[in-house]
Design a protein that fits this description.
Blueprint: H1 8-16, H2 23-31, H3 33-51, H4 61-69, H5 82-103, H6 105-113, H7 117-150
Amino acid sequence: MSGKHLTEDMLQQCALNPGECPDETLTHLFECAECRKVVEAYEHLGTLLRDQPAPVFEFDLAAAVIARLDSPELAVESASGARQTGRFLIPLIAVLVAFPAWFFWKTAYFVFSAASTGLAGIILGFAGFTILSAFYKYYRKYQQVLHLLNS
């Protein structure tokens, strides 16, 4: 026997599936009383856990969460369904802007290189405002969902 003990992972593996342990590990367990005691403790713990009754909730957790998500307090959309439109409008605009910008980036560079600094500032400012307002909208929605789930 070497002076080295088995790792916790090896000891737990021996307790759970002794048939899958390598021969060297089993030989060490036969020779080392300290490691054998740890494996016996893990086996006893596993037996105690298996004998425990399955936990039973007095309520349906999934139904409670779904009911809160479907509550009218959570709906931010208007009667015309603006929320559904916004869900697809932002990615559509991103694709419609990003693809041509990537495909024609050299042409766009030459077109906007002659533009004034003020015009470039207006374009960048409008784009930044649009992105920040979208992030703020989704952040507020996130806060509402958390508030409803916590209440």
